[in-house]
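Hi V.,

You were right to ask for the full record rather than a summary. Here it is.
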Amino acid sequence: MRIGERRIAGPLLLAILATLLCACPAREEAERQAESGDPVAAPSPEQTALTPALTELNEYWDSLPTADRSMLEEEGRSLDYYLSQYGDLDRGLLRALVSSFLAARRGESESGGNGSPELQWQFLDIFSGADKDYAVLSVGNFDDDPAQELLHSEQYRCRVLELDGSARELPVLGWDAIRTSLAWDWDGDGVDELVATAYAAEGEAAGTVGLDFVRLDGTVAGSLNGRLLKATQPLADYDGDGRPDLIYDEAASRRIVGLASSGREIWSTEQIMPSVALAVADLDGDGLDELLASGAGAGQSGAASLRAFGSGQEPQPVPGLTGELPGDMPVCAADLDGDGIAELLTQNSIIFPASGKRVELELPDGRSRINFGAFPCKVLPLRRSTGTLFAALILESEDSHRFDALLLWDAAGRLVYSEMFEVAADGLYAVWDGSADRLVLRTEKAILVERVEEQ
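Predicted structure:
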């Protein structure tokens, strides 16, 4: 096994269990009865009837070494505890949760490679409603400090999550506001608004009618007639002022427009077809970001038709792209080596537009290529104190069982970290803490943040 590669759930859900345990009514009641001496009511026949799934869980629990079972139960993590926290618990998830807890208690850990320790995860929030699939997480700066926060919005709940675990409740923003995952400072006041798709009012023709920029109090700061581009990286600095700008597809024309705060147009083009931005970064070293997209009328197809579109310049081809599909299709861009020109991450390699050269990606054992999944992909630049990495959340399936893996690469294409989860991981985010990015992971049941040890 490669250094830094992990095949267990690891500490992923450990902090969730510890946090939820504090609020576990069943355990509090058991402790109260133990202290008071009150008799414990015997379970009814209906409660003791075992389904095949529960029988399998009991068999797994009984198969644990006595010392392991004792350690779990002494910490309040009995089988009943896990059943109370996970209504759809199966043997695989139970095994992952138990292995995670026991490994942490024994102090088992591995190096993350490249001098990096393994990632530890701590609980931030849990999905509260039946419609958790519609819950939206938005990364942005929602207060007056330089660090970013995470907005967790559901149909009947909305709150801002700080990386230290604290949170503040907000008014429910309404259906339009919760159907967006993008935050951007529309009015230039330093606090981000939500970029929300506006829908036709009741009685009007169905469909979208534009974009609204919604403040955290639910009021609309501004609107425009258009839609967001399909993009993994929807924001960038197109005018060099150090502030992120927004790109959108204008509804009344074929224009793709770049906007600064308060709707000030920076540049536009009619040469992008379709309305998809594969990557956004400074691809030529001029200090301004460019949008990497297919150019209409380029006379070529596939990756060879890709052009860099930017303010005050003609669309330019990108050195290093050969046109091979799907291996040469970029999914993310960032300056990893610090030379001022971004590198491109593709399925097989990292491409250096500065020279046109490429390095092959180091892949997990047994993999010949990476499938980044449907676009927009779960791939992002990760800014560390030691440099920038590419981070990707990859979905794998083996014998109908789902495994999700977190992979990190450096500028040399070296796989510096690999962690495989035996629970579903549905989203990956980078949140700036004031000095570096912290990873946030969305699982089926909860939101986790990468823990940083205090110096």
